[in-house]
Model the fold of this input.
Amino acid sequence: MARRFRLLIPILLLTGAVAFGQNDTLRFSVRGVVRDAESGRPLPAVGVSIPGSQIAVITNADGTFVIKSPEQPKQLAFSLLGYRNLRQSVPESPSKVMSVRMNRSSFTLDAATVVTGDPRAIMLMAIQKINDNAPEKPELFDCFFRETVQKRQRYIYVSEAVTRVYKSPVKDLFIPDRAAVVKSRLLTSPRASDTLGVKVQGGPTMPVDLDLVKMRRLVIDSQELQDYRLEMMLPEMIDDRMQFVIKVSPAVQGNFALHNGLVYIDRETLAFTRIDLSLDMSDPRKATRAMLVREPRGLHFRPKEMSLLLNYTTDGGKTRLSYLRTRFRFNCDWRKKLIATDYTAVAEMVVTNRHEGGRELQIPREEAFKSSESLADKTSFYIDPDFWADYNIIEPSVSLEHAIGRLKKD
Done:
C-alpha cells in the first residue's frame, strides 16, 4: 500500500523449496461459530483469544473458528469492531461446537462531544504518541498467512504459510524487522487458461512492510498527511474502548494515487487501533502505477480496487499489529481477445502467538523472507490433510474449502 508496494502480474512460477520447522504441540482444540445476537448472521474477522495467553485466531467469512492450545482452555474471549467484548466458557466435551452470540455496542455520548475536536490535531498527537504506545522490547510473532486468487468466481490459486515475524522496538533504528517461513503449501489450478496469475510481492513480509504505524507511511505520516482532507466521524467502540474515527480523503491532485479510508484512534491513549484504506481509483493511470510492477506484452490491465485493513490490539498498555488484509481487484484481457477477465487477489495475516525477549529472538538474515519474493516461488504443492495439525490457522470458509478440494483433484 505504500507507493512502492505493488502488484506483480507475471506468469506464475510454481516450483521451489518449502521450509519446515517445529512448533509446540497444540493437543487441544476448540471449534465454534460466532454470530450476531440479533440477526443470527455469521460474523467474520472476529478476534478469538485464550485469556491469560498470547494465543489468538480470527473467524473466517462463515464466522467459524478453530483455536488450538497446549492445554484445555476454560474460556475464550471475542472482540470485534462495533460489538461488546465477550468471554464465554468452553464446553467440557471437546467434540461440541461452541455457539457464540455477540451484541452490538451501545453507548450514550453527548452530541457536542461528537463534533468537537480537530481531526488533524488528533492525528498528529497520535503520531507523536506512537513511541509511547509501542512495545519497548523485541518480540517474535507466530503468524498464519493465506493468499488466494479468484478468476471470476472460481479459485485458481491458494497459498498458505505459518510464518514468524521479528519486530524490533520502534526506538531501535538499527535492527530491522524480519519474517521467515516455517511451513507452507501451495494449491493451484493446472489449467493452461489459468496461467495468468497474481503474485503479491513479499506476502509473508506483510507485517513488516505494511505496518503503517511503525513504518509511519501514508496517512500515518505528518508530511503525507498534508495531502489529505480529514473529517471527524461518529465514534465507535473497539475492545469496549471509545475510539475517535477520522475519515481521510485526497485533498490534492499529485503524481501519485492517494487513499480514502477511516482511521481509528483510542480516545484515552491515542493509540492507533484500526486503519482501513483503499486506493483512489478516480485516475486509472495513477492507480495502475501504484498496483502494477510490470505488464506482459499484449495485456490490458484495468484496476478496480486496492485496499488495506490493519487491526492493532493493546495488551499490557502496549499496542501491536494483530491482523491485516489486502485485497486487489482488476480485470485484464489480451489485445486479441474481446472479453476481459476479472481477478481478485486477497492476502491476510493473523498473529496467532507472541513471544517477548531480547535480540536472541531475531531472525537470521539468511533465513529471512525478502520483500521482493513471492510465496509461490518458495513453496511446493501439498495435499496432506494434517498439514496444519500443530498450528493455529484461519479456518477455511465453506467456499474456500470446496475450492481447495477441487484444486487437489485437478
Observations:
- Residues 398-409 form the longest helix (12 residues).
- The mean pLDDT is 85.
- The CA atoms of residues 10 and 296 lie 7 Å apart.
- The chain has seven helices and 20 strands.
